[in-house]
Request: fold
Amino acid sequence: MFGLGMPELLIILVIILIIFGASRLPEIGRGLGKGIRNFRESTSEKPREIPPDTEEGEREKERPDK
Reply:
């Protein structure tokens, strides 16, 4: 995980605990979890394709291949 060992992760956790306090950590974790979930959902959705019967699809047909 990014070349970080257990001691480094513990130091980072202690620094975060000092900066934000114990009462805010669940709120921060919840926000990070929601952000990760939204990112996964948006990347797993099927991308919308432009149907060939639209204007842009017609332009693609008319353009000569290079």
Q: What stands out?
A: The chain has a mean pLDDT of 78. Residues 25-44 form the longest helix (20 residues). Residues 10 and 29 are 16 Å apart (CA to CA). The two ends are 45 Å apart (CA to CA).
